[in-house]
Amino acid sequence: MPRRRCRRGPQGGNTGLCGGAVPDDSGTQVVLSLTRLRRIRALDPANHTITVEAGVVLADVQAAARGAGLLFPLSLGAEGSCTIGGNLATNAGGTAVLRYGTMRDLTLGLEIVLPDGRVWDGLRALRKDNTGYDLKHLFIGAEGTLGVITAAVLTLFPGIRARATAWVALPSPRAAVDLIGQVRALAGDRLTTFELMSRQAVEFVLRNGNRDPFREPHPWYALVELTDTLPDSDLDSVLAAAMTGVTDAVLAAGPAQAAALRGLREGISEAQNHEGPSLKHDVTVPISDLPAFVEHTGAALRKAVPGIRLVTYGHVGDGNLHYNLSKPPGSGDAAFAARADELARIVYDATASFGGSISAEHGLGQSKTETIRDYKPTVELDLMGQVKRLLDPAGLMNPGKVVT
Q1: CA-angle at 357, arms to 284 and 198, nearest 5°
Q2: First and final CA of the chain: distance in angstroms?
Q3: 204 three-state secondary structure
Q4: What DSSP string describes 93-152?
Q5: Does the global pTM surpass 0.90?
Q6: pLDDT-derived band at 26, boundaries 50, 70, 90
Q7: Main-chain phi, psi angles of 360, to 5 degrees
Q8: Would the CA dihedral through 352, 270, 93, 11 be positive or negative?
Q9: Which pLDDT score is estimated for 1?
Q10: How many degrees, rounded to 5, is the angle at CA 364 between CA 38 and CA 318?
Q11: CA 47 distance to own-chain centroid
């Protein structure tokens, strides 16, 4: 009998939101779990690098770096369960992109198992290697469709020795864009985090027992954080000086209060799940267009579904918003969920009209492989398909994801 060729889909912590790490219902696909590849192979303090296998949990990489007095800066809500392989496959961003960039910026080398069984050992811990195509970038963000990432060399940074955190009340997204300009002017690259949240998003978190830092509700909020590698940096004064013109602000008095403020942002996604169907959209537009995008998209959604609750939050510093939707109070779950495609089109059409992307950091997975055809130029889709066919002509690697 001829030998059957299995189609494989790699899976790490299974925390993705676009179906990139789960098989279809055909029964012809094999899930390749990488969670047993969990060794930290090397940590080089002099070179500021760490070499880890794909199944290592992100929080464990952070802890290993801290143990050496260094920092691995990627930080996101699922860091206690997501894995480095998944972070690389989706080019994860998180809350510190402003200062440190995405996984693409944090990666020096990769080890890849190719579709034909060969292993590419690209685990070079070099900052400079100008010897042709930088092949690792083909696999970062490819969601396992070109090969299986089994290990990586990641960049480390000096440890954080000073931190200032503020929770800020704002009247509008325009005020947030203005504020980030003020903070950047005073703090420079010490600005590490700038997260924007609508009142609706924060209300969901407050229902779970979190305390509101302010006595009165406000339309919008920002979580702003400065960090420095110097222990005597007076970041609180810098952050306070940047708060000129804001509605209200609370500066964290210590690590515990800073953690509580960050918890208001990090708890949004889970809190929304208690409100019925959660229609999630991960988009990005130019920072300067964020205020107009939010106003335009909100008006279109409210017209389509009166009473809809807009759970809008994200990374203002890179234009990335999680534009999530919850049903109107008292309405049925099934009826709202049935309109998911219609409402997604409203969000995506608005995103495209502002020159944005319908996936900022979650990837395409299998949920957006058809949708992306309406928003990406044909030549770009053709080039992606050609790369896929060149490296994986038999279509063995994570079929049905990213490209079709």
Answers
A1: 30
A2: 29
A3: helix
A4: --TTHHHH--HHHHEEEEEEE-TTS-EEEE----S---SS--THHHHTTSTTSS-EEEEE
A5: no
A6: low
A7: -90, -40
A8: negative
A9: 32
A10: 85
A11: 27
